[in-house]
Design goal:
Elements: E1 2-8, H1 12-22, E2 27-34, H2 41-55, E3 62-64, H3 105-115, E4 120-124, H4 129-137, E5 147-151, H5 167-171, H6 173-182, E6 186-190, H7 203-211, H8 215-222, H9 225-235, H10 243-252, E7 257-263, E8 265-267, E9 278-280, E10 292-298, H11 300-311
Parallel strand pairs: 1-2, 1-4, 2-3, 4-5, 5-6, 6-10
Antiparallel strand pairs: 7-10, 8-9
Helix pairs in contact: 1-2, 1-10, 3-4, 4-6, 10-11
Amino acid sequence: MRKILIDTDTGSDDAVALIMALREPSVHVEAITTVMGNVEVELATRNALLSIERAGTYAPPVYQGLSTGVINDPLEGKDYGIHGRDGMGDLGLPDPSGSAEKEHAVDFLIRTIESHPGEYEMVTLGPVTNLAWIALRSPGTLSKLKRITMMMGTGPYYGNITPFSEGNARMDPEAVDMVLRRAGTDIVLAGWNLCINEYLFTEEDITWLEETGSERAKFCLDINHDLIDLNKKRFGKRTIDFADPVAMAVALEPGLVTESITAYTNVELNHGLAYGAIGVDHCHQSGKPANATTITRLDADRMKRYIMEHII
């Protein structure tokens, strides 16, 4: 059975992705680590514990990680309108019954990866700040992961947080740079391009989930009501761009991928309009070795069915 570590800034779409992973019988989630991003790290930890309870399967340990970026404070002036101020749609959810472990997430990850080289895959659903600190504190540790799949970047598309940048990358670009340069293992980027257009969950998809009568599906929709409302204003109908669940689907079921580019990949660190944009050297002009695979196309129908089947 595949062993998975998940690093998350648990907002409402992260919660759906966590539930998916915990309900996938072919993998075992060994632990969940948290990081600031959608919300402060304390709320991300609380939301991860809530998500575990709603999955209704088993309870991996949760370890709290870093509260700010490698260099800057990305939560200053942040707009919390997409996931709610608490990250879960401000529904007044009761506190989880579980609690986080005392050990810091970075310490736990270094200890665990080093003691089980080649055993674990990592899925990141938020800024990769925890992984960047691993690269700084313990060079070589990330190379002992089988693979790192990130919800990160825009593929060949425009950004969702600035004209060029995707939210997780823009939250801590310096962390992305450190991981791309220092990981030394397979990196897969599943970005914003896989969440829109034909990959959007349509009004019909949302209605289908509602009509299943599943309390789990209802929870997944309720906590994402802010995102649904925002998209109704943007697109004229209820839709969901399920970023983290799509990345989790790519990690759990790689057969969904139909096109990808493996090439030298880096991130823009100049503090201008493109800060946080991820560049893929698809023409191999730099002469530098490939360090990441960017997913450019999925089987959209299969991907949506996969997600829906795992949350009902």
